[in-house]
Amino acid sequence: MPRPISVRIHPEAVRHNLQTAKQSASGARVWAVVKANAYGHGIERVYPALAGADGIALLDLDEAVRVRELGWTKPILLLEGVFDSADVATAVAHRLTVSVHDDEQLVLLAAARTQQPIDIQLKMNSGMNRLGYRPDVFRAAWERARATPTIGSIGLMTHFANADDGAIDWQLDRFDAATHGIPGERSLSNSAAVLWHPRAHRDWVRPGTILYGASPTGAARHIEGIGLRAAMTLSSRIIGVQTLAPQETVGYGRTYEVERPMRIGVVACGYADGYPRHAPTGTPIVVDGIRTRVVGRVSMDMLTVDLTPCPNAGIGSTVELWGENVKVDEVAEAAGTIGYELMCAVARRVPVDIDTLAAAQHEAAESVTA
Record-annotated residues binding substrate (predicted)? Predict the structure, then answer.
């Protein structure tokens, strides 16, 4: 029998979350962001749920090729653009739209030997200070791009530094001033701006983490009431039970001392599976549908939980580490990180299955209403 840990992917949750993003940014077209192998969910696994998107955005050329091979005919955006002439050839062959954030990339595109113009998104550094042309040179970069025969349509994009805490007007003002009078479709909004900043919606939006049910802020409470659904459930089982007396300790470092008689459940999941090693005592977890807490230090292959709230639990009891009942952001926040990291960090050794029943039910419902 295999070790009782698995991750379950819910494509219908992605479909639902995409629709939620579209409703939040009504009137804008949507780049569905699937970078990092769809935030750890698997591009192939979630691909059927992305049909309602107007385009797909990602970073890696191999992922872009995979999306084309899956049958995607609509635009694909390379968010970091191209890095050498071979990348340009691949972008042309697969009809990719490429981000351009510096003159070196413009030179690569100008040198391309192609009869088919390459569509680009010209990126402005409006204050994030990672990639992009600064506002004072952006117009000149656009003029060079417009004069390049191998470049087709030119979209305008930027990225917000702190849309999750509400302060984006300063970047919007910079972007609008620097692009005044420049034609081209605008793409500004990340997940946080999709949900909370309608001024930034413009022509295209780029939802990422919200497609998978996680919070742009890293705090689950900030998306309560929005209706996003978890697209990933990490689950396991209790594989051992210990009954401890007061003053006994749990796990490496003896970091948790029992204050009263307590049953401890041992869960087949540890940091080698992608669960955060720094998740402290008190991190929420669900056993047999009952919310309880992690106690002691997370080890490589196991962690321990307090079975006091679930007296009937024992060996074989089901455990949800994150999913619909315990949000990935709750676990991440307890561990001092964000849900993005945990979703991307699930280890390859964890078996993956797909919630095909929900997909079948959705298809059946569509056929009835068709």
Answer: 130, 300
Opening angle at CA 186, ends 181 and 188, nearest 5: 125
Q: Is the pTM of this model over 0.90?
A: yes
Query: What tokens appear for 97 in the block?
Result: 């739209």
Clarify whether 252 is annotated catalytic.
Answer: yes
Is 211 within 8 Å of 33 (Cβ atoms)?
yes
* pLDDT score, position 164: 85
CATH 2.40.37.10 at 232-354, yes or no:
yes
Average pLDDT over residues 29-42: 98
pLDDT in the model for residue 316: 98
Residue among 281, 287, 355 at smallest CA distance from 325: 287
Q: List, by residue range, all CATH 2.40.37.10 domains of the chain.
A: 232-354
* Contact status, residue 71 vs residue 106, Cβ threshold 8 Å: no
pLDDT band with cut points at 50, 70 and 90 for residue 368: very low
35 is catalytic: yes
Three-state SS string across 176-214, please? HHHCCCCCCCEEEECHHHHHHCHHHCCCEECCCHHHHCC
User: Which residue stretches of the chain are H helix?
Assistant: 11-24, 35-39, 43-46, 61-69, 85-93, 103-110, 135-146, 169-178, 191-196, 328-334, 339-345, 356-369
Entry field: residues in the chain:
370
Q: Which amino acid is at 327?
A: K
C-alpha 191: how far from chain center: 9
Residues in Cβ contact with 93 at an 8 Å cutoff, skipping those fewer than 6 apart: none
Give the residue range(s) of CATH 3.20.20.10 domains in the chain.
26-206
- Residue pLDDT, tens place only, 74-102: 999 999 999 999 999 999 999 999 999 99
Q: Which residues are annotated as a binding site?
A: 130, 300
Catalytic residue (one of 22, 35, 123, 327) = 35
**Residue where the block lists tokens 């940014």:** 25
Does domain 26-206 fall under CATH 3.20.20.140? My reply is: no
